[in-house]
Structure formats: structure tokens, C-alpha cells
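Dear colleagues,

As part of the handover before I leave the project, I'm documenting each prediction I ran so the next person doesn't have to rerun anything. This entry is a single chain, and its sequence is reproduced below.
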Amino acid sequence: MALRTLTIDLERGHARQQLPATVERDYLGGRGAIAWLLWHYLPPDTPPLAPENLLIFAAGPLAGTSAFATGGFVVGTRSPLTGAIGYSWAQGHWGAALRRAGYDVLMIRGQAPDWVYLVLDGDQVRLRPATGLAGLDTVATAEALRAELGADTSVICLGPAGEAEVAYASIVAEGRYMAEPAGTGIVMATKRLKAIAVRPSRGTLQAPDERRLHAALDVVRRRAENSPLAAGIRAAGSSYLLDRAVEWGALTERNGRDGRLSDGLAHAREGLMALGPRVSRGCAGCPMPCYFDLRRQSGEQLPLPELETVAGFGARCGISSLNALLLIADRCLRLGLDPASASAAVAFLMECQAEGLNLSGTLPWGDEQAVLAALDRLAERQERRDMLSLGVGEIADVFWGGASFAPQVKGLAMPALDPRALTGVALAIATAAIGGDYRYAMSYEELVADPPAWLPDEPSHPQAVKGKVLRLIWHERFAAILDSAGICRRLGLMGYQISPGELLAMIGAATGTAITPADMARIGERIVTVERLFARRYADNGGRDELPARWTDEALEEGRAAGHLPQLADLLAEYYRRHGWSPAGDPLPERLAELGIKS
């Protein structure tokens, strides 16, 4: 079946179309469809913040079916942060609503004269003035639109940070699920699109082979019910991985300068669990719910800080108060700020101030009130733009010598797990086609005590080299397939609860098409290769695979990772070879021909 696409031109109207059937065959949908569209439809000289840039939302063939953990979506664009393809991923239910409204892909182009919101309601497509939503945070925006349009409406939106055009503003789904990493929110903001509300026109979509689909789902459910890893994530979300990160020295303080941790951060997971009762806000029916709120004595509910929030604002910025991290997590969600990018920018400016390079004096190490105040300022449009709103990639060269310790690669912020402690994470950060975020490949394996048997090669010490390249390539391709099929990457990779065989069965059941393991592997490779091509040709730094000097040349003096530096040159040589790319890291013409990719 051809992918159903709705194109909205914010200046001229809308049109319905179907993509060629070969797109679903070769790329599935979801992230794969976005990669195909950006490679084929977006002129290479399109500036990321120009109205002509495309902002594409997509949900895979599993979304909207009776399968659990399939309600999320992927949004992609040419990223202003990197110049390459930028993606954000979010869980929840909006992607399922989009497909139940009759669309697999929603493509936005143009720029509205004033702020608007988009309503997809059955066959009706309406743009409405967003005057009444101006200044509302993401939670209040979702609530307002549900009150206006009906409780069955699913909403994605920008918060005040997006309206203020902060470079790392994020899209938030349903007032609950942050679309991470950054890059797409600022494009939505420059189009003056505050929100997209979807009301499904039909109920659950029937898969061509429901029996096969549910047989695979039953295996996943039973595994999750008996998995210690899944049980840990059910209790603490991604913060369950904090203990292992601490054990291997992957949490470092003061922007990676110090391997020592304050006692509160060294026991952060235990401390978070003691703050109060947790309320699940995980996706409906998922056997591994991974998002939680903490209920305070006042009755107020605040989002449980995620791994990247604790590592970023906690260790990297020196904030040891867990209550402060709870407030910061809530502020980021409501304002619509990517926590990894925000904490990277804050930590960089803290270090510049400590070194006398930044004389503003507003962000000393560990000052939680200063950080909260800085985040609040990002929600206000300033006559003179706040430097913090630009993001770490853009401000790295403002201060002399700053590029060597700015936590960014290819313009995208590095989440705060220290690559000197985790060799696989180091390689993932350096090579990610979207920029320096290991979540491109969802490579959390080194923080998992017992990785699944279906991973290639043997597991090795987190700071060893053996097996890292092969495992990263596997993660890259598997993540691409999960995103394109429309099933949760957290369930499939952070929790390792979906095997390749089960994913293969689900895709076959949802598409009604016979698909082999080789077909599935080729789809993942094809998507990753297109994204690599885009980065090598159009990324602002030429798509170079590197890490800032601090994380390649300056070994830590204390902690479990003391004295260790990632052997990036050796890792890259093997990585390129195993991909079948040139020694410089470029996909070769003969490989592109085998994959059916037009260069």
C-alpha cells in the first residue's frame, strides 16, 4: 500500500497524495519515509530556517494498530543546528492518531503570516489563529485544545521557548512526551505553527495478519514481565540506568573536567525513588512503561527526571539537589526545551564564566536558582537575544578556545554520558548522522548488565574496543527499523525487549507483505546510508566524525574511567570498513547502487 501523505503549505493550502509504493517497500514508513522525502524532495541549497524547508511528521505501519507501544512518531527536517537531517522522536499516542485520521506522513512547508495551529479532524483540515494559545506552556496548550476540540484529540505543540525561537526548542506531545533531540522545534517555530491537533476519524486499524501480530506481541510481553531490566525501567524510567553509569565513571562533573561525583549524584537513582510516590504516564498497554511523574505532598505532579537530565543538569552543571532537578525537568517540559541541549549550553557558559571568558557572572557552577532563572528567561522573547538561546554549537566559537570543551559534535549537543568512560557511546557520538547524540543509535548497551543474546559479537568491558563497531552498526540499523516500523525505540533498545525475529513478524503482520531478515537488515542500512550521505554533503562541519578535544585528549584523573581515552582513529577505520564505505567515511557508488540509492 502506498504511504498516504498530507502536505500543508502554510501560505497556499493543502494537498493529499500518495508516495510511490517503492518507498514503503524500501523504507517502510516513519523515519525511513522522512529520509527518502528529504533526500529526494528538498533542494540541497534550502536554508534550514527558510520557509521552503520541510518539516515532516511520520508514523510507521504499526502505529494505530492494536499493537502496544506504537503510538509515537518521528519528525524530521533539515536541522538549523547541523545542516544535516535532524530528527526528533516522541512516544505517546499522537502518531497513532495521525494514522487513524488517514495519514502516514504529514509534510509542512511555508510560513504562516501569524501564529496558527493546525487541526486534522476527519477529512477536514483547518488552520486557525493561535492568538488564544500565545504564551501558554506545553501542558496548558494541550489541555486548551482538548477542551476546545474534544477529549479524543491528540496534540503536539511548542511551548514559550519555541515562540521565543530558542535554537533547541522542542516539540512536546500531549503535554507529556518530549520529542528529542533538538533541531525540529525551531523549524516549527519559524513556520509560526504553535500546535497540531489530530482527531482520529476511525478506530483501531486492522492489521492484515492480526494473529501473527499478537503472537509476536505476546512473546514481547512475557519477556518484559520476566526481565529484570524491564522491571527496573518500569520502576524508574531511563534513570534506572544511572547506577551503571556511575559505576563505570560515565557521570562527570563540571562539563567533564572532574571524575568525582557528589554523594547525592552518586546515589541519584535511589534518591529519586525516595522523593515520593510515582505515577506512570507511560503509553497505554505497554509492558514496560518508562515515563513517570512524582507526586508531591502538595498533590502537584512533576515529571521524574530522565537519565539525560540528571547527567546533564546534575553532574555536568554541578546541581546535586534532586528537588532542583525535579523542578528543572518540569520547566524543560513545560517550556519545550530539549534537556540535553539546554544542559550542554548551560554547562559550557558556566565553564566560560569560571575561566574568565564569560564576564556576565550569571551562571556559577551548581547554582540551581541561577539555572532556573536562565531557563525562565528563555521563555521570553528578548530585544537583544540571550546568548544561551543560541545553543552550544553556535556559541562554541564565541569564546577563545571554547571549541575544545564545547560539548557538541556537528553542531548538535552531546548528552552528558562521558565518552571517555563508554567506548561505544564515544563512537556513537562521533559518527551519528544527526550530530553528536548517541540516541541516534540508542546505544545504551554498555549501561545494561546483561545485553541480549541476539546482539552480534561478545560483550566487552565498556572501555574496551573489542566488538564496539559491530554492535554500534547493529544498533544504528535496528533503531532505524524501529523508527520506520512505528514501535517504541525505548522498548526495543533501551529495554532490549524486542528481538529481530519478533520485529520481523510484526512488520510482516502490519504490512501484509512477506519480508525476510535480509530485507529488514537492508532497510535499516538503506536509511542510515541516506542519512550519512546527507550529513557528508550538507552538514555545517562537512559531516566530520570527531569529538571535542576535551574528550579525546584530556584523560580524567579520578573515577572508574581515569586515564582512559577513546581510540577514535582505530574505531573509525573499522567502522567505515564494516559499513563498506571509503577510508574517509563516504558511502561508495557501488554500495549505493546495491541499495538502490540515487546519489
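DSSP finds 24 helices and 17 strands in the chain. The chain has a mean pLDDT of 95.

All the best with the project,
I.
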